[in-house]
Amino acid sequence: MAVTEQSPAVPAIPAVAAPAVRRGEVMYRHGAVVRVTHWINALCLALLLMSGLRIFNYHPALYWGNYGYRGVPSFISIGAIEDSESDEITGITRIGGWSFVTTGLLGVSADADGDPAAMAFPNWITLPGGPGLALARDWHFALAWLFAVNGVLYLLFGLMSGHFRRDLAPAAGELRPRHILAQVWDHIRLRTPRGEAARRYNVLQKFAYIAVIFVLLPVMVLTGLTMSPAVTAAAPVLFDVFGGRQSARTIHFLAANLLVLFVLVHVVQVLIAGAFNGMRSMITGRYVVRPERGA
Amino acid sequence: MRKLMTRRRLIAAGAAAAAAPLLTGCDQQLSDAPQLRWFLDLGQAMSLRAQRLLLAGQPLVREYTMADISPDFPPNGTAMPPAPLYRQMMMRGFDNWKLTVDGLVRKPLTLSLEDIRAMPARTQITMHNCDEGWSAVGQWTGVQLSRVLAEAELAPEARYVVFYCIDELVRTPDRSGFYYESLDLFDALHPQTILAYDMNGKSLPVRHGAPLRLRVERQVGYKHAKYLTRIEAVERLDRIGKGKGGFWEDRGYQWYAGL
C-alpha cells in the first residue's frame, strides 16, 4: 500500500516491492483499522488494569482451586501489619514463602491526606481513586465490553485483510535458530533494524505480539468470565480449564502482570527505535525507514 | 517527635475516614457525569442481556460433593441482627418466627419454620461467591422458591419478588437501613433458587441468616438475603426502599449481579 499524499521532501515507496532504501524514506506502516483498534485497546487495558486493581484491593490474596477466603493459605497476598507499640503500619507483600516490606507501594500507601494507610494497591493507580467496589466493577465490565468488541473487530480485520498472515506470521527463514539468536543478539545490543529489515516486524516482535494477541488476552477474557457465577452456570467447563474459581482469579491476576510487563517492554522498544517515528506510525500510519548502515 | 507524629496521624486517620465519602463522591461525580454514566449503564445492560441469552435454557450451576465443602464459610454482611425481637426468637429456636408471602399473589401465606420444613426439600452443594473476590463451598437445604410462589399463586402481573429481612444493617432515624433484596422471575423461578433452612446438614447458623435465607446461585453474595421475614411479589421496584431493588442497590450496587 503506497502513501498517496505526501510532502515532496519525503517520497514514498510502495511497501511490497522494495528497492534499495534511500535516506529517510517514508512507508505506510499501519493501516487505519490497526491504528484505531490499537489506541482503543491501549485505553481499555490501562483502565481495565486500574479498575481491576481497585477490585483486587477488596480481597488482596490469591488462592488455588474453588474456594479461598481469609484463613485459607494463599500464595500471594498483600497486607499491612501494625506495630502495637509505635502505631507504625508496614506494608507486607507475600509471595509463597517470601515476605517483602513494600510500604509506600503495596500494602501501605498514602491516603487522601498523604498519611500512610492500609491498602493493597495505592489510590493513585486505581479506578476509582478511593473506595468504590461497585463503581470499579461498573468500569471494569463496561471497559471489558469495549475491549471485547474492539478485539473482535481487530481479529476479523486481521484474518480477512491478511494482516496476520503478512505481518505477524513468521516466515520460514525467521524460525531458524541461527536467525532467532542473531535477533536476540541485536536486541541485547539495542541495535534497531534499518533499511529492508525495518519494514517488517522482527521475529522476536512477532513472537511477542502473537503471544499477547492469541494467548494472553484470550486468557484474560476467559479467566475473567470464569469468575462470573452466571457465565459458569452456562459454561461449567471453564472450571475444568482453569482449575476453579480462585485459580481463574489467580491466573487473571498473573496474566495481567504479564500484560503490564509486555507494555513496559513495548514502550521501551518504541523509545529505543525512535519514539517520534514510532508514535507517528501508530497515529498517522507513516513510518520513516532509516537507510542501511553505510548506505 | 514520634509521639507527635502518631497523634497527628491518628487525627489524620479520623479526617481521612470522614473524607473517604467525599473522595468517592468525587469519583462518583465523575462517573455520574452523563457522558460517562451512559457508558457504565450500557456495560451493565449488555452483561444482563448477554447472560440472559447464555442462560436461556436455565442450566443449573455446578453442584459439588461433600468432600468439596470448604472448611469454613465466612458470613456476608451481618453476623447477628441487633433487633431484640430477633434475639428473643433465636432463644426460642425460631418457633414463633413467621414468613409472610404477599403482594401480587392470589393466596397470601403465613408460614412457620415447621410449615416450610414440611414442604418438599432440595439439597445442593454449591459455590458461594462474594463480590469482593472470595468464595466458599457449602451445602444448603431448603424449599424451592418456585414452589412457595406456586402455592401462593403468583398473579400474572407480578414481575419481581422482594425479600425483606429482620436485619437492620444501618440504623437511621427513618428506618431505611433494613436489608432487602429482589429478583425478577427469571432467577426467582430457577430450580436452584431456594429458601434455605439448613447449612452443611445442620440448622442454618445465625451468622448465615437463621432461620431462613435466600440462595440464588447464579448471582453473587449480596443478592442472597438472610434473616427473611417477608416475601412480596410486585410489578415494579421503584416504590420500595430507595427504588433500586435492594439495600446495596440503593447505595450504588448493581441490581443484576451475575457479574
Q: Can you walk me through this structure?
A:
The complex is a heterodimer of chains A (295) and B (259). Chain A has a four-stranded antiparallel beta sheet. Chain A has a two-stranded antiparallel ribbon with strand order 1-8. Chain A folds into two domains: 25-59 and 129-289, Transmembrane di-heme cytochromes, Chain C (Fumarate Reductase Cytochrome B subunit), CATH 1.20.950.20; 62-120, no CATH class. Chain A has helices at residues 32-57, 133-161, 163-168, 177-188, 203-226, 229-234, 237-242, 245-283, and strands spanning 25-28, 61-62, 76-82, 89-95, 98-101, 107-110, 116-119, 286-289. Helices cover 50% and strands 12% of the residues of chain A. Chain A is globular, with a radius of gyration of 23 Å. Chain A is an alpha+beta fold and 295 residues long. In chain A, α5 crosses α8 (245-283). With 259 residues, chain B is of the alpha+beta class. Chain B folds into two domains: 2-48, no CATH class; 61-251, Alpha-Beta Complex (Sulfite Oxidase, Chain A, domain 2). Chain B has helices at 2-32, 34-54, 84-91, 113-118, 145-152, 185-188; strands at 98-103, 109-112, 122-129, 135-144, 160-168, 178-184, 194-199, 202-203, 213-215, 228-234. Chain B has a five-stranded mixed beta sheet. In chain B, strands 3, 4, 7, 8 and 9 form a five-stranded antiparallel beta sheet that branches. The chains are: A alpha+beta (295), B alpha+beta (259).
SSE order and pairing:
The complex is a heterodimer of chains A (295) and B (259).
Chain A: E1 25-28, H1 32-57, E2 61-62, E3 76-82, E4 89-95, E5 98-101, E6 107-110, E7 116-119, H2 133-161, H3 163-168, H4 177-188, H5 203-226, H6 229-234, H7 237-242, H8 245-283, E8 286-289
Antiparallel strand pairs in A: 1-8, 2-3, 3-4, 4-5, 6-7
Chain B: H1 2-32, H2 34-54, H3 84-91, E1 98-103, E2 109-112, H4 113-118, E3 122-129, E4 135-144, H5 145-152, E5 160-168, E6 178-184, H6 185-188, E7 194-199, E8 202-203, E9 213-215, E10 228-234
Parallel strand pairs in B: 1-10
Antiparallel strand pairs in B: 1-2, 3-4, 4-7, 5-6, 5-10, 7-8, 7-9
